[in-house]
Design brief:
six-stranded mixed β-sheet, alpha/beta, 6 strands
Length: about 220
Amino acid sequence: MTADCCVVEVRAPETLARTTRIRYPPLPVPSIERRLTPMPSLILIRHSAPDIDPATPSCEWRLTPGGRELSRSLARRIGGFEPATIVTSVEPKARETGKIIADELGIPLQVREGLQENDRYGLAVVGEERYRELFAEFLAAPETNVVGRETASMASQRFHRAVVEALDDFPGQTIAVVAHGMVISLFVTRFNAIETFEFWSGLGMPAAVILDRDGYRLVRIIGA
């Protein structure tokens, strides 16, 4: 069994992949003052490997010892981008990942609402095949409550707003946002010609997705 956002190194079936592009209404963009400055990077970091506890909601999971070590390794790999700060989701596995990276790089850390994973209230730990089926359905019906109390569209818009707010707090600087596989995938594939299910399925734990601040173009993905 994989974690709350499973990592599977296979491509989504063609018939499924065609269903996972989502159309969204316009959302806020960073302020014009920030957009007129030279654009460094936005680094979206998927949290490291959590300790899966079927008796505990996934939003409360913490990192494994191996996950903590992988976080330190990832910090060393992204240090050259010189992020000014780490902004992290409220979930423990993201906060732990963010703190380790911030400590390794000697930069500030802040925790921000709105960066958490899509709501998974009532979702039990299930087998990998069923897990993938559920989230294929989640992406194929972005306005429908398939998993938890939040649709794909709602999760995407909420995460987008939180990222824009974080960027506006640090104008003209590279920042790293530590969050979760599904919301990161929804954000990245919204601005790049990539299928959401395929991107989500292949994103490691941890992984750093490097984007241009201006337009959120995908530059590269860095694993631990």
